[in-house]
Structures are given as C-alpha cells and as structure tokens.
C-alpha cells in the first residue's frame, strides 16, 4: 500500500512516552494551584491568592502544550517544573510544615517532567527555599527525618528517571529498525524525509529518493520458501550498505521494497549512482534459483511540500521500470 499525500507523521515514540507523565501531572498541578488560590482567598490573603493564580496560569499553558503541541513537550516540562518549585515555595510560606507533603510530590514529579540535568538543580533550589523558610524543615521534630526522606526521594527519583530515559532511547532504536535486515524501517524513513523536506525548503541540499524492488520476489518465496526470501532480503541489505556512500541512507520500506535517500547534485549523478547499484546487485545477489535482480525508480526533490508527493514520483518511476522488463532504472524525469 502506497503512502498517501498528507500531513507529517505522528511524533516519535520517546516523545509519546515523555508526554504521558507530563499530560497527567500538568492538569493535576493546575487544579491544585487553583484550589490553593481559592483557599488563600477564603483566608483573606488576596495577594497570596493572586500569586497562586499566577502560578496556575503557566501550569495551564503547560497542560495545553502537552496535549496540543507535541513539538513543545520540552518547553512544557520546563515550565511545569518551574511552576512546581514556585508553587511549593508559596505554599510553604503560608502553610509551613503542612506544605511539606506537596513539596515531596513536586520533588519526585520534576524528575519525570524534565531531564535530570534540569530536574536536579530545580529540586536543589526548592530544597534550599524550604530550608530558608522558617517552620518548614528547621524544626526539632522534622529536621533530620525530613531531610533523610527528601534525600531518599531525590536519589530514587534521579535513578528511576535516568533508567526510564535510557529505556526510551532503547525503545526508539528498536522501533526504528527492521528486525530482519537491521536497516532503519518505514517509521525512521518517514521521520527522516520530514526532516529532509524542511532542509530542502531552505536550499541546503540536493537529494534524490530511490525506491528499489526485488524482481520476481514472489516466485522466490513460492518456489523455495520464505527462508530463501528472507535470506535474499538480508543479502540485499548487506550489498546496499556496501554500495552506498557515507552521506546516503538506506531503509527497508516493507516487503521486498527498499528506499535510498541519496545526495545527488544532478540528474546525471543520480543516473550513474542508481545504475551502479543495479549492476552491483545483479552481480552479487543470488538465490537458490540463480541470480536475483532489482528494479529502481528515482526522483530528484522538486519542491514538494509533503514527502508523500516526492515518494509518489519515485514510485511511479519504479512501476515503469518493472513494466519495462525489470532489472532496470527509471528516473522520474524520464516519465515526461
């Protein structure tokens, strides 16, 4: 099934995983600050109530960013982290040691909102503020015990957050690789093409999209089994890795189709490159029934707004190459 033209693909996996705690904590923090502002107003503390509402406003903005703008998750997390610090210090100033449980929650939450290198100094700032406010930590009953609990919470939060950040990175790697060939998969291709389209609009490069397809791949599977087909895919991936230049990238799109994102300064350069790949595969790729060939369709970037439109031009060239007898190359300009 060919990709249809349309808007960019959804955000990457780590971004989705990072947004989950943010989307949970942000509205809770906003609601808590609004309730706290109402309580302060009921206590006839109008200035403090306004200060709480001033903290609730950026928390509400962080909530909106977390749910609506996936590209602004880092900003939303930082904003909410700062709100946590300010809100807890405000509560401690008015409630004394009764605000300590909320501060402990904020210390833990900050590790899940932002990276450790931001959460740690933010939490140290909050801790310093709590120590500076009389009646919060500097009391005979709470001094040692509270500091010990805070140290344990910060240590546990730091360690757990670091582990989760590593897991997110590992999940992104696994989600972006094809299990059989080890090449980047369609998800990685779509994300890369979106980035390349943005670069192309600024005139920073000349790129070409090459789609290649194993000729008569169904016959290989039908006559010799899926193991033979899998072996052919793995061997083709290895050949492509050897043939590509350092600046080129290859992806397994799905099935027997592979996609190359190649730097090509001109149509002639692209034609020479694709023909070299075709010849190399013809000479090196063999299956139980003999040699295996590929057909290639290529298209220079021509100012498309969406990667799907660029892909469609290369895909049309591929179908023409297969219609011309296979084991051939067609560049989109040839379709004229």
TrEMBL record:
CDD domains: GGDEF. InterPro entries: Diguanylate_Cyclase, GGDEF_dom, Nucleotide_cyclase, Rev_trsase/Diguanyl_cyclase. Gene3D superfamilies: 3.30.70.270. The chain crosses the membrane at residues 20-41, 47-66, 73-93, 99-115, 144-161. Its cofactor is Mg(2+). Its EC number is 2.7.7.65. Residues 205-334 form the GGDEF domain. GO terms for biological process: cell adhesion involved in single-species biofilm formation; negative regulation of bacterial-type flagellum-dependent cell motility. Pfam families: GGDEF (PF00990). It is an enzyme of class 2 (transferase). The keyword Transmembrane applies. It catalyses: 2 GTP = 3',3'-c-di-GMP + 2 diphosphate. One of its GO terms (molecular function) is diguanylate cyclase activity. Keywords: Membrane, Transmembrane, Transmembrane helix. One of its GO terms (cellular component) is plasma membrane. It comes from the Bacteria. This is diguanylate cyclase.
């Amino acid at each position: 099934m060919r990709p249809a033209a349309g808007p960019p693909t959804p955000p990457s996996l780590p971004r989705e995983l990072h947004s989950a705690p943010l989307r949970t904590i942000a509205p809770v923090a906003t609601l808590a600050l609004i309730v706290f502002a109402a309580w302060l107003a009921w206590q006839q503390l109008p200035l403090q109530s306004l200060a709480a509402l001033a903290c609730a406003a950026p928390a509400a903005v962080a909530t909106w960013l977390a749910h609506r703008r996936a590209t602004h998750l880092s900003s939303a997390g930082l904003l909410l982290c700062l709100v946590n610090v300010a809100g807890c210090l405000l509560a401690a100033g008015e409630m004394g040691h009764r605000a300590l449980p909320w501060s402990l929650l904020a210390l833990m939450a900050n590790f899940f909102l932002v990276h450790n290198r931001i959460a740690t100094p933010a939490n140290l700032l909050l801790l310093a503020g709590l120590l500076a406010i009389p009646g919060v930590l500097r009391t005979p009953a709470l001094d040692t015990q509270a500091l010990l609990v805070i140290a344990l919470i910060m240590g546990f939060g730091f360690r757990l957050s670091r582990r989760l950040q590593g897991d997110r990175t590992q999940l992104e790697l696994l989600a972006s690789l094809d299990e059989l060939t080890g090449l980047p998969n369609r998800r990685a291709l779509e994300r890369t093409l979106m980035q390349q389209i943005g670069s192309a609009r600024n005139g920073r490069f000349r790129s070409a999209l090459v789609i290649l397809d194993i000729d008569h791949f169904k016959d290989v599977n039908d006559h010799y089994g899926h193991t033979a087909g899998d072996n052919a895919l793995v061997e083709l991936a290895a050949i492509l890795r050897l043939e590509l230049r350092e600046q080129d990238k290859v992806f397994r799109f799905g099935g027997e189709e592979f996609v190359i994102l190649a730097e090509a300064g001109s149509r002639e350069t692209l034609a020479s490159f694709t023909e070299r790949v075709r010849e190399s595969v013809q000479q090196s790729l063999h299956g139980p029934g003999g040699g295996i060939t590929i057909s290639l369709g290529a298209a220079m970037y021509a100012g498309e707004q969406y990667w799907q439109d660029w892909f469609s031009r290369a895909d049309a060239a591929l179908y023409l190459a297969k219609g011309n007898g296979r084991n051939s190359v067609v560049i989109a300009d040839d379709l004229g």
